[in-house]
Amino acid sequence: MREPDLSSAALIGIDWGSSSLRAFLIGGKGLVLATRTSTSGASTLKGEAAFEAALQEVAGDWTAARPALPILACGMVGSQHGWREVPYADCPIHVSELALRLAPPNGHGIRIVPGLLYAPQDMAPDVMRGEETQIAGALQANPALAEHACIVMPGTHSKWAGVQRGRIVAFATHMTGELYAVLRTHSVLGRLMAAPKEGSDVQAGSPAFRAGIDAARNRNAPGLTHQLFTARTLPLTGRMGGEESCDYLSGLLIGHEIEAGLAWRDSAGLTDAPLVLIGEPELCRRYRFALDCFGKRADPLLPNTAPAGLWSLAHKAGLLAGTESAT
Amino acid sequence: MREPDLSSAALIGIDWGSSSLRAFLIGGKGLVLATRTSTSGASTLKGEAAFEAALQEVAGDWTAARPALPILACGMVGSQHGWREVPYADCPIHVSELALRLAPPNGHGIRIVPGLLYAPQDMAPDVMRGEETQIAGALQANPALAEHACIVMPGTHSKWAGVQRGRIVAFATHMTGELYAVLRTHSVLGRLMAAPKEGSDVQAGSPAFRAGIDAARNRNAPGLTHQLFTARTLPLTGRMGGEESCDYLSGLLIGHEIEAGLAWRDSAGLTDAPLVLIGEPELCRRYRFALDCFGKRADPLLPNTAPAGLWSLAHKAGLLAGTESAT
What we know:
Strand order of the largest sheet of chain A: 6-12-11-10-13-14
Number of domains of chain A: 2
Shape of chain A: globular
CATH architecture of the largest domain in chain A: 2-Layer Sandwich
Oligomer: homodimer
Strand content of chain A: 15-25%
CATH superfamily of the largest domain in chain A: 2-keto-3-deoxy-galactonokinase, substrate binding domain
Helix content of chain A: 25-40%
C-alpha cells in the first residue's frame, strides 16, 4: 500500500464507535488520503491510557510526523464510558451549530463532536453519538438534502432522522440490529437456524427475507412479540429451511422498523421528505429492498459519511485554517 | 416431610418442560398427594438413558413401590429433542380428544400427551407442548370455562388460547419472557440495569412497570423496536433508576403482548370470552395488573393446572381403571 502524502493532510478524523474505530487522514479539501480501522472500540477500552494507546496504535505515525494536525473524533468516544464525557447537544439543532459545540482539546489535542439528545415533552428521550456527524457529512456531500430529508442509518441501533433547512429536527432509534444478533445468538430462535455462510449472511432479495417483510406488514398479525416465534415454528414444521429462517427473522425485524419508521416520518411532518440511506452498503441494500416492498424509494444510498462530516465540522470550526494552505 | 400414602395413588403425572420437570403423585379422585421438582428439563437431557435416569431420580421410589401405576407426561418431553417425538395433534380440538391421542407407553411405561399445531391458512403455524394439558386441567377444575374462555398462560413463551364448547379453537404464542431475559442478559439494555434483588425482581404495581405498560399502549409511539431503546435512554438521562428500568422493560414487553393479545382475541371471535390467567402466581399478578391498565379484568387466576389436566386425560383415557378402586 502506498504511503499517503502526509504533507497534504489537514485533519485526522476519527469515527470512534462502541466496537470499532476508523481513523481518516483527510486533505484540506476533504479528500480522504488514508483510512485505518481497528477493533479498539470505546466499549472495549477502560481508562485514559487505553484510549491514548489505541490512538497511538492507529495513528501514531501520523501524529509524530505532523504533531500540529488537528484531531476531531465523533461517536461513543464522547460517552460516559468513553475517553471523556461530552454533554449531549439538544436536538433540534442546525448542523453548523455542532461545529460551535465541539469539546475543546484534551491533553492529547483531541476534540470531540457532541452527541445529540432529543427529548420532546411527553416522550421518552432519545440519543445519538456519531450519527450527527454522518448527517453533517451527508449534507456536505449532497447540499440538496439539507432542505428536506428523512435519513435512515441502519445498524445495531438504527437511526431515523429528520432534516429541515439544515437542521436536525427529530430522530428515533430502533434496536433492530442488536435484536437480530441477540435473538439469533442467545434465544431459542437460533437453535433451528443454520450456521451463516461467510459474507452471505442475509440476502436482501431472498423469498424468506421478503416473507419476513410481508409478515411485518400484515396488520392482522398479532404483534412482534408473537411474530418472532414464527421464526421458530416455520422451520420447526418444515415450512422453511434453517438458513432461510435467518433471512426471515431479518426481514421481520427490518419490516417492523420500517413500518414504524414510516409512521414516525409522517408524524414528524416529513411525509414527503426523500428517504436517504447511509451506512454499510450491503445493509443499505437490504433496507432499500425492504423499503421497495413498502412502495417507498430510498435514494441516494450513501456509504459512511463520517469523514465528510468530520472534515465539514472541523472546517466550520476554523480548525483547518493553519493547514489548508499546505494542500 | 411426611411420606405420601402410596397405596392411594392412581397416577404419576409429569409436567416435563424444557428447563424443569415436575412430578406429581396423584390419587384416584385427582388429589395431588406429593409433588417433586427437578432441573432435569428436556432441553438439558440427551438420549434415552438420560431421560430414564431423570425419571428414576425423581420418581424411582414411587415406581418401585407401585410398578403398575400409570405414568402420563406432557410438555417438551414429547418434542423432537425430548425422550420421544410425539406428533402434534391439530387445533381446533376438543380437550377430550387429547385423551384419545396419547402416545402409547414406551419401554418404561410412559405415555405422553401430544402437543398442538395450529396452522390456519395464510398464517404462520403455531405450536404448544404442555399448555394443552394445563388447559384441560383448567376446564376440569372450572367447568364453566369450557363454554367460552380466553386463557392466558404467561411465561418464557406466553400462550393465548381460545376455548369454545370444550374445544381449543385457536392459540398464539408470544416470546415475551424470553425477550425480557435475553435483552436483559445479553443486550445493551442490561448494562444500565441494577442487579435484581432475590425474589423481588420485577414489581407488578411499581410506577416504572406502569410506565412501561402506558408506553406500550401509546399508539403514537414508533413501535417496539424503537421503544426497547427507551429502556436505555431513560436511565442514561437520569429519568429512571437502574432498578426501575427492569420493571419498565417488563411492563413494555407485557404491555405489547397484551395489546396484541386483546386484538387477537377480538379477531378470533372471542371478544366477550372471560380472560383467565394460568401460571406462576407472581407472574400472573403482574399480568392481571397489566390487564387492569387496559381496562380488562382477568378472573380467575389459576396456579399450575397441569396435574389436574394429566389426571383428567388419564381418567378419560381409561388409564385409572385398575387403580381407582384402591382409593
